[in-house]
Specification:
This protein is of the alpha/beta class and about 450 residues long. It has three domains: about 110 residues, Rossmann fold (3-Layer(aba) Sandwich); about 220 residues, P-loop containing nucleotide triphosphate hydrolases (Rossmann fold, 3-Layer(aba) Sandwich); about 90 residues, 3-Layer(aba) Sandwich (Rossmann fold). About 35% of the residues lie in helices and about 25% in strands. Strands 7, 8, 9, 10, 11, 12, 13, 14, 15, 16, 17, 18 and 19 form a 13-stranded mixed sheet that branches. A six-stranded mixed sheet has the order 3-2-1-4-5-6, with helices on both faces. Helix 2 runs parallel beside helix 3. The chain is elongated and about 80 Å long.
Length: about 450
């Protein structure tokens, strides 16, 4: 006998009612799907009256809007699985995936005839107050936001630990003490075969807190990693002498650990469909706040930023939105020095960054490379750094094995910089945003 699962069936009037009801009975018998309700999506071609779909003990739900009504039905009925028995023209791919994202956010499986979406694994292993920081893609600014949140918590008198999941993370969960981070230490990590520019090193360097590194490989459409040791890293972090835990995702993958609150980080430079299409809404539906990064030209036009904000609000009307831009903050003084900038930012942002450094930090820019994540091009670019006294780089990608080693070989100084998120167009500010999120955590 198949295992029993309480199910919400999505149906329409384009199927003959007898066809729909026979299919429900067959799936109940064959797969143990016990119908809680029939959720009517629309269509009238083969249905004269809803009474034709009546089944004893099974509710018929006719929402004003299938999408906006879904969350309330899932909350009330708490099905284990949503069974999609509709099709075009009533239910197309975009709406189907949007309904699937809502279903996953409420912890249920979304099934169709030839597909199944499961809620990403989020294990309950943390006993301390916690917050996840997840993103919609690579280089959207998760690490910068994690580091800023850690700094905020320290200013509030709390002792945070950051758990970082990355594609270049360690084979075993790895604790990095903030006092360990130095040029020599990072080069020694490279000599051990480790990716010394992995985000757990950057978080420790920038925020001055203890971090735990972990790795992941692969990522599902809703954000679950295929293989990861992040859960073990979370358990390790929970055993440390920290008071709160920040869980940092990787790319578009989310930490597979349940937390008290969540923040979604979205780059305004990212393609909107890539960020918010398909199952992208899932991350927004489980988040308490969203930070839009790179909210300026040349990364995105004002019109695109406005459209992004409106689409976020449409997906989750209760979410708090904060728009930010990034500016480089050197972790050592570079005033009066000739500086060669190395960054992951696109070429179009180069003049903006150089002008900012020249004005704010009082340095003399003498060149730059935007190939930090392209080792071959980066090595070529560094040949133009002859006049520089300082190589100013993010701690990402090839910052250690290429940039730091090059500086050592050429007798130059390396200074790492932090991408500081600066609020634009809001009176709330980053501290106000973090304060709101941690109010949710502490409830």
């Amino acid at each position: 006998m198949p295992e029993k699962h309480a199910a919400l069936f999505l149906v329409d009037g384009e199927h003959h009612p007898a066809t729909t009801l026979d299919a429900v009975r067959e799936l109940e018998k064959r797969e143990g799907l016990i119908p809680l309700a029939l959720y009517f999506l629309g269509g009238t071609e083969k249905l004269k009256d809803l009474s034709e779909l009546a089944v004893s003990g099974v509710e018929i739900i006719v929402p004003d809007d299938p999408l906006t009504g879904m969350a309330g039905v899932l909350e009330r009925l708490k099905p284990q699985v949503v069974v999609d028995m509709s099709d075009l023209p009533v239910l197309g791919p975009a709406l189907r995936l949007r309904l699937a994202a809502t279903t996953l956010a409420w912890g249920a499986v979304y099934r169709g005839s030839d597909f199944e979406f499961r809620p990403p694994r989020r294990e309950k292993v943390l006993t301390k107050p916690s917050c996840s920081i997840m993103g919609t893609g690579k280089r959207c600014g998760k690490t910068a936001v994690s580091a800023e949140m850690a700094c905020y918590l320290r200013r509030k008198g709390l002792n945070p630990v950051v758990v970082v999941m990355g594609r270049g993370g360690p084979a075993q969960p790895y604790v990095v003490e903030e006092r360990d981070i130095s040029e020599d230490f990072l080069l020694s990590e490279v000599s051990k075969g480790l990716h010394a520019a992995s985000d757990h090193y950057e978080d420790a360097l920038v925020s001055g807190v203890v971090t735990v590194g972990s790795r992941r490989c692969g990522g599902g459409m809703a954000g679950e990693p295929f293989v990861t040791n992040c859960v073990e890293a979370a358990r390790l972090a929970d055993s440390l002498a920290a008071e709160v835990v920040i869980m940092e995702g990787s790319g578009s993958s989310i930490p597979p650990v349940a937390t008290d609150a969540a923040i979604c980080v979205i780059s305004a430079a990212q393609d909107l469909e890539e960020a918010l299409g398909f199952l992208g809404p899932y991350k927004l539906l489980i988040s308490h706040g969203v930070i839009i990064t790179m909210a300026e030209e040349p990364f995105a036009s004002p019109l695109k930023i406005q459209e992004l904000s409106e689409r976020i609000e449409w997906i989750n009307g209760d979410i708090v939105i904060l728009k930010t831009i990034f500016r480089p903050h050197p972790l050592k003084s570079i005033r009066g020095k000739r500086v060669f900038l190395v960054a992951t930012a696109p070429e179009e942002a180069g003049i903006l960054l150089e002008d900012y450094l020249e004005e704010k930090e009082g340095c003399v820019p003498v060149g730059r490379s935007h190939s930090l994540s392209d080792r071959r091009n980066l090595e070529d670019d560094l040949r133009g750094a002859g006049e520089a006294e300082i190589l100013l780089t993010e701690l990402k990608a090839a910052a250690v094995d290429v940039v730091t080693r090059f500086a050592r070989d050429k007798g130059k100084e390396v200074v790492y910089f932090h991408n500081v998120p600066i609020t634009v167009g809001s009176e709330m500010g980053l501290d106000g945003f973090f304060g709101h999120i941690w109010e949710e955590v502490m409830k």
